[in-house]
Amino acid sequence: xxxxxxxxxxxxxxxxxxxxxSLEEIRIRENRPLEISYGSRYxxxxxxxxxxxxxxxxxxxxxxxxxxxxxxxxxxxxxxVEEELRRGYITVSGGHRIGLAGRTVLDKGAVSHLRxxxxxxxxxxxxxxxxxxxxxxxxxxxxxxxxxxTLIVSPPQQGKTTLIRDLARCVxxxxxxxxxxxxxxxxxxxxxxxxxxxAASDRGVPTFDLGPRSDVLDACPKAEGIMMxxxxxxxxxxxxxxIGRPEDADAIYEAIHAGVRVLATAHASDxxxxxxRPVLSKLAADxxxxxxxxxxxxxxxxxxxxxxxxxxxxxxxxxxxRSFGASPRDDPSEKQLxxxxxxxxxxxxxxxxxxxxxxxxxxxxxxxxAMIAPRGVDDD
Length: 380
Description:
InterPro entries: AAA+_ATPase, P-loop_NTPase, Spore_III_AA, Spore_III_AA_AAA+_ATPase. Pfam families: Spore_III_AA (PF19568). It comes from Cohnella endophytica. By secondary structure, the chain is an alpha/beta fold. The chain has helices at about 5-10, 15-20, 65-75, 80-85, 160-175, 220-230, 245-255, 270-275, 280-285, 310-315; strands at about 25-30, 35-40, 40-45, 50, 90, 95-105, 110-125, 140, 145, 150-155, 190-195, 215-220, 235-240, 260-265, 290-300, 300-310, 320, 350. The chain has two domains: about 5-125, Beta-Lactamase, CATH 3.30.450; about 130-350, P-loop containing nucleotide triphosphate hydrolases (Rossmann fold), CATH 3.40.50.300. It is built from ten helices and 18 strands.
């Protein structure tokens, strides 16, 4: 709250308790109504902190208030955050990411930076310890005594980063949540935190609990960070958020052939979206990921579905009764509620999914011992 100018902070401090407890986004747009997102809802905010679904009568941030907010989030130095401005967001202490909207400045056809910034989307970061316990048992490679190469998939704001953060904590702490893994030790985890959201590091020190055996490269590009991790920090599991560029895939190939397990996230709704993205499609077709986790959210409830690589390929080769794009989070359809079905949902059009031939390839084993160590003995 201390990031906001006094006049804005006074409005936000009066929000109802139900909104404050589940607050996810604060959208501040110059000379336009103040908006918040909480749970599966959004509302405009009046000057007294009360909520309304109508934009009329809502509090309207002024140019001066937006300028003051920009000064605070950049610590009064726009030039110090020039790289973040080029990418359209600034991450502040606590892992909260502030998306920016304004006029782009181009250099040889590429975005150089933003100017005349008049829109802010403050995304609230929260750790949910225990979230990973529901998912991790289905991701284990019991033979190799570690986690399988895993891709977590969902549209934005469905819980990918929250889940991957807690999975990293579990692996680093040796909390496997599976009876067959009760004698396993923990694993060394390397986290490449390009957007400073997973660890929320403050001067290199994570502020979220990531377990005792995690190392973090903060604000580092994913592809370069993965290679730095493999070369110098000897991780057994590498964690990265939001892959999708060709260089990300190249680094992942290098990591898996070095015996490192990969835990990653990507934006997509289902397997057909995965195969519609060239980089993800190649990784999937090459059999890189042993399993996929699909997240679906309705209100505060997040449901997950774990799919093996083989099941994912069969699913991708069937016809899918869906329309392109993610459903709104307040959409009551079966897809949004997390109940995937082969039967048509009223109002959607059947779309054929891509057929992909999977290349069978044996994944390299990791360095951890294959034999189960005696109880109480660290097997690292």
